[in-house]
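Data deposition worksheet. Section B asks for the primary sequence of the deposited chain exactly as it was used as input, without tags or linkers unless they were present during the calculation. Section C holds the resulting structure in token form. Section D is free text for depositor observations; keep each observation to a single sentence. Incomplete worksheets are returned to the depositor.
Section A, Depositor: J.P.
Section B:
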Amino acid sequence: MQNEVLSCGEARRRIPEYLRGEPCPSLLSHLARCEACLEACLETALATPAATKVPEGFQERVLGQLPVAASAEMRNCVWTLAAVAVSFAALALRLWYGGEIFVFAAAVIQRPAILAASAGIETVLALLWLWRALEAARSMSQ
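Section C:
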């Protein structure tokens, strides 16, 4: 059977078996000289889902390797961000309903030093937050 010459029809019928791992030297020799059947083999291989079996207990092993402290740290980070957002919203509402928002905005706009200082403070806080987020991501990946 090894020296068997296959027709294109027979070769294409054997492609699925070959892709499942069954040896077929005659198909290999046919594919080496027939570009149309080789293309059909490649198309079949790409259309066939990979038969990957996930080992038992894989999910537990992966989850067991994640650091527990990182998830607790991320929860604290989320709560901190939520507290900051609520604080800024409360401050904005207080200024808006108290009618002081326009006075505050006018004071900031009229004094470039205040505007520059607040921009500097926001930049430093954003950089610190970014640094902390990168450190947390780095510790989670290890």
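Section D:
The two ends are 54 Å apart (CA to CA).
The chain is about 80% helix and 0% strand.
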